[in-house]
Records
---
Amino acid sequence: MYLIPFHLLFPDLAQTETRSLTLFEQAGIPADKYGLVESYCPDPTCDCQRVMLNVFANHQEKQAATINYGFNRASKDAGPFLDPFNPQSPYAPALMKVIARHLESDAAYVLRLKAHYALVKSAAANPNHPAQKILIPWRQKADKAYAQDEQLAPLREAEQLLQQFGKTLEQSPPKKRRPSRKK
Ligand SMILES: [Zn+2]
């Protein structure tokens, strides 16, 4: 199933509710501010209960990792795991460990992700929702790419949009003190 960047559907909410982690240099991870930019599956009939976190490194200006995370913790493929079809950096495995700890330790953040997931699904299920203006052409483009056997094309387009959004997240130099966890 194709995904859609959350900020395309809910730009204001994404701007205020996208988590960033400011990290020291550690375990091969460069000091930077890492934005956890979200994408969700907009199929209203699909109960996948997942978020894709596109981890954008603000100062390096690149996608440092792409992490799949399932809300159903009982599921064997809940993750988090590095997504095989999306960009990863050499230090993505180390970064994923840091983010996995963050997800485990911050229940409020996980609740926020679940709320965003629910918003996307309810917008997708409602033909009168204003987000349909974005969803319909997005779906058509994805369907067309799939029909032409270009499954990765929608991913590549989403990647560009996610990076553009990552760049708009608040810029601040990495702190020298202990890493701050919240935005
Ligand atoms: Zn799904």
Note: Helices lie at 6-9, 11-17, 92-105, 107-125, 132-147, 152-168.
---
Amino acid sequence: MHNFKVSVITVCYNAVKSIEDTITSVLSQTYRDIEYIIIDAESTDGTLDVINKYKSSIAILVCEKDKGHIDAMNKGIRLATGDIVYILNSDDSLCDENVISYIVDEFKKYPQADLLYGKIKYIDLPEYFSLPSSQHNYLIKAKRDFIKKALCHQAVFARKNLFNKIGLLETKYKVCADYNWLLSVFSQPDIKTAYVDRYIANYYCQGASFKNRYACRLEKIRINYKYFSFLDFLAFLLYFAVGIISIEKKKIELFFARLKRHSKKMISFPVALNLIKYRFSRPSPILSYGPLSLTLWISDRCNLNCEFCLRNKTAVDFRYDILPEMTMETFKKIMPMFKTAYAISFMGQGEPLLNKNFFEMVEYAGRFKKTMRLVTNGVLLDERMCGRIMTSSLDTIDVSLKACSAEDFQKITRCPAPDYEMVLNGIKSLIKLRQQLKTDKKIAVSYVLYKSRLSDLPKAIELAESLKVNTLLFLNFIPFGAFDSSGSKEILFEDDKETISFINALKKIPRKLEIIWPVLLRRSNYSGYCFSNFNNLCIDSAGNIGFCDRVLPPSKEYGNIFTDKDVWNAECFVQMRACLLSANKDSDLPLRCKLCVDMSGDKSRAGK
Ligand SMILES: C[S@@+](CC[C@H](N)C(=O)[O-])C[C@H]1O[C@@H](n2cnc3c(N)ncnc32)[C@H](O)[C@@H]1O
Ligand code: SF4
């Protein structure tokens, strides 16, 4: 019997994180007669290095600019010489190694079938998104089934000659060209389709196609209008509207549930109104809501001298003026100015617990029902201090653990090794008091990871587990501090395979502890949303404002809450937000922002 050749096409652009899974899922297929075609749009993030590792098993590799991914898919279809064509995105992977042999057998069983389709496994589906029940039944009996169901190319194998009959994908559709193509297939009665009750591909919901689902829905309206009868089109619009309303409702419920988890405090009316305004507004340079959180730089004095801290002279263009600590008078002026802010972080370019008014500030902010977080180096956490903290209105205590041994602590903080014992004992006291007082305050430890200390990762996890903290947060190193020009070599980059495989191996081990893994930095193509610039306002002891608590701390050149009107929409903020929302981030972003992981495309941090 004729043996089918199957052409599998993957189009990609800057997909270093996922492309290896995609490629290996194709190359590990038990079916041998596969022609693997990869069309890359000149990736710059190391994707090509990954592809080249498998070059000998790739039949056709095209690396050139294209007019979008639909154009690239068409390129692949034109080059395909197989009997059957399948398109797999670089975010997705085949479910198991027998998918293609199974499909070939099915084509042999149904020789009249022009197209076979199966099921998709949705991976990392967002909490707010539940699949409609109609989507659990994948079988499509008639064109009008597309009112409630979705079929995507990841589930579909087509005979090559079907493209001669129907044509290629229409590039005027930027996201849903495959849907348009499939609807035209299902609109022609002489074309035979068959359903196979089997999972075909893992569809990663954090991938590009899922993220574009709103644009996709709008395209679907245009497409369905073309193919549906008037009544079917109305039914589709109704179903579409109900779907969007139920997703938005679920998102709002989850948003408030998340806030409640953070803090059991009642939310005041101005805070709730501000949160709702935020929830329903689109990111724009001028914001209609006020800051959701304030980071207050209450102390620039410090009892440690960490080698990586921005208090030191730095490798990046960085100058920070050390100011006197925030007074109670200033704090009392700030609070009523930001009644709509939900949370406060006590920080500083120093140690907040050194501010003698710290507990008075916590008590005062408590009257405004703020959710409060302290970031401390932990050196002052003796029994008395721990007692005051655990009986205060603070909600989260984040102790930044500088090292995993006294010896390293001494090297990193350039302070006496016994201080390390104080920090560990302090965390233990906090945990003990949490049990005794039965409070639900969150105790977290954070750890700055840099490349030459990557091997600390397992030790840091073990230590945090033994301390029984709630959360361990790894921060990627930002090259401030007493590192010379070698500083940038210490950053953890997203294309560093050694780093990725080291971290991935650790991620596989199940743990009780919540671990927030380091976000790895991109070298270019910044796609981040930057939580801080849209949600958070930093204020120092002189009332100067800053963009974020990582790389752009307060400075009088940005603005001042006491002398400027509407600092939240000050010119510098507006310019910065416009840059973050523009397509041209690569050229316009300040160097320091390019060193911040918020620019690395993890939009989930935006928390909407
Ligand atoms: C600047 S400190 C101020 C609060 C307090 N002194 C402390 O160390 O926790 C705030 C946080 O920034 C982190 N940090 C300091 N320098 C950093 C760097 N170069 N890269 C990443 N995080 C850094 C600290 O570890 C800490 O978690
Ligand atoms: S990281 Fe914190 S503890 Fe270390 S020197 Fe900077 S401000 Fe002080």
Note: Residues 302, 308-310, 347-351, 375-377, 400, 446, 448, 475, 477-478, 480-481 surround S-adenosylmethionine (ligand 1) (CB under 6 Å).
